[in-house]
Design goal:
CATH class: Alpha Beta
CATH topology: TIM Barrel
CATH superfamily: Phosphoenolpyruvate-binding domains
Radius of gyration: 19 Å
Strand content: 15-25%
Number of domains: 1
Distance between the termini: 65 Å
Largest sheet: 8 strands, parallel
CATH architecture: Alpha-Beta Barrel
Length: 258
């Protein structure tokens, strides 16, 4: 039977529970296997900014087989061919960057769903157990697969009600860095114009029951949960490596020597 962990994760979100995840920005099946044993609810492989090839992405997706952690991937662009390939590899969630209009959301959702709900093409690949589970997978996939869009423009506030009303949308995250680029103050996280847009996006999504979160944390996990966010992404694999390595070196440099 096909692993229905994605359905269980969707049920948690429907019940209003937050879920915790981490970005995977290192092409390493070993690192992915380590993360797979940590108990995260979800992970997002950064196929937009990370350095990955398709074989490496497939190996990372496979590293989560048999776990309760649902593997997502942020595709380089909101493109139906890229999305189809990632789903065929075994990713059970898609995050689309720069999804800033109603039409962008419709396009992302359609690419994640088989007909009649969308336009995803069918192939007997890893996701369908190479044809062994093709009937079950094709029957369940539209319910299993997550479609999460990433809003990266403050101008999306003008369409946000319509965007979160698109049938089949499972969640929304926002990217403060790129959102700030649509203001006059790039990467100023204290810019009131940016903060107002973020507040508007969050409040509309939460009121509509659409899980929301941040692609880049400007709040603690406790603050995010208190605000109603459910899609928690706390750092990345490279963050953990960098912070751990820096701590070792800094601790060593502070040791007195003769």
């Amino acid at each position: 039977m096909y692993n229905q962990r994605a359905l269980r994760l969707k049920e948690k979100l429907r019940n209003g529970e937050p879920i915790v995840g981490i970005w995977i920005d290192l092409e390493s099946a070993v690192a992915a296997g380590l993360i797979a044993g940590c108990g995260f609810d979800w992970v997002v492989v950064d196929g937009e900014h990370g350095v990955f090839d398709r074989v490496g992405l497939h190996q990372i997706a496979m590293a989560f087989k048999g776990t309760e952690t649902v593997p997502f991937v942020r595709v380089p662009w909101n493109d139906m061919v890229m999305i189809k390939q990632m789903l065929d590899m075994g990713f059970e969630g898609i995050v689309t960057p720069q999804t800033n209009t109603v039409e962008d959301v419709r396009k992302a959702v359609a690419a994640c769903r088989y007909p009649p709900d969308g336009c995803r093409g069918f192939g007997n690949t890893y996701a369908a157990n190479y044809g062994r589970d093709e009937d079950e997978y094709s029957r369940l996939a539209n319910d299993l697969i997550f479609c999460v869009v990433q809003v990266e423009s403050i101008h999306s506030v003008n369409e946000i009600e319509e965007m979160i009303s698109v049938p089949g949308l499972d969640g929304l995250i926002y990217g403060p860095n790129d959102m700030s680029g649509t203001t006059s103050r790039f990467r100023d996280m204290a810019n009131p114009e940016l903060l107002d847009a973020i507040d508007r996006i969050e409040s509309v999504a939460i009121a509509a029951g659409i899980p929301v979160g941040a692609g880049l944390n400007t709040k603690t996990m406790a603050e995010q949960i208190a605000s109603g966010a459910q899609l928690i992404l706390e750092g990345s694999v490279l963050d953990l490596i960098r912070q751990g390595a820096d701590d070792i070196v800094n601790t060593f440099r502070e040791i007195p020597t003769n």
